[in-house]
Write a structure and sequence with these properties.
Elements lengths: L7 E7 L4 E4 L5 E14 L5 E13 H10 L5 E14 L5 E14 L10 E2 L14
Parallel strand pairs: 4-6
Antiparallel strand pairs: 1-3, 1-5, 2-3, 3-4, 5-6, 6-7
């Protein structure tokens, strides 16, 4: 099989404050949602806008940085890869969730809100452990 590419870059606004949890081994994982929007003019000349929501997950040091420096309503750049995970609930029903696993985050907009505005990862093993939310 040839080499593939799974890279996602989004710029959007946080829809909720980040939530940090820990895996059983103590590794931090932070999740939050980001809304992106696009606009266009339809064939009829109407102005249209569409909002797309992304579930974002950050691991390790980036998880801690996202938790301490991000808040609902902030504009942010996120770079990472898409990952779909599945699980069964108590009734045996299968569920699936596609997430953007972040490996870079840059705060946009008002940078005076925080001194830290970029994370450049040095640890490439951000998703070694399974987790349940």
């Amino acid at each position: 099989m040839g080499r593939g590419l799974n890279k996602v870059m989004i710029i959007g606004v946080l829809g909720r404050d980040p939530e940090m949890r820990f895996t059983p081994s103590g590794r931090p994982v932070t999740s939050f949602s980001v809304a992106t929007s696009r606009s266009w003019t339809s064939a009829e000349g109407e102005r249209r806008e569409e909002v797309e929501w992304f579930n974002v997950v950050a691991w390790g040091a980036l998880a801690e940085i996202c938790k301490s420096h991000l808040n609902k309503g902030q504009q942010v750049y996120i770079e990472g890869r898409l990952q779909t995970r599945g699980w069964e609930d108590e009734t045996g029903k299968k569920h699936y969730r596609t997430e953007l696993v972040a490996n870079e985050m840059i705060l946009l907009g008002d940078r005076r809100a925080t001194e830290f505005n970029q994370y450049d990862p040095t640890d490439s093993s951000e998703d070694e452990e399974d987790y349940a939310f």
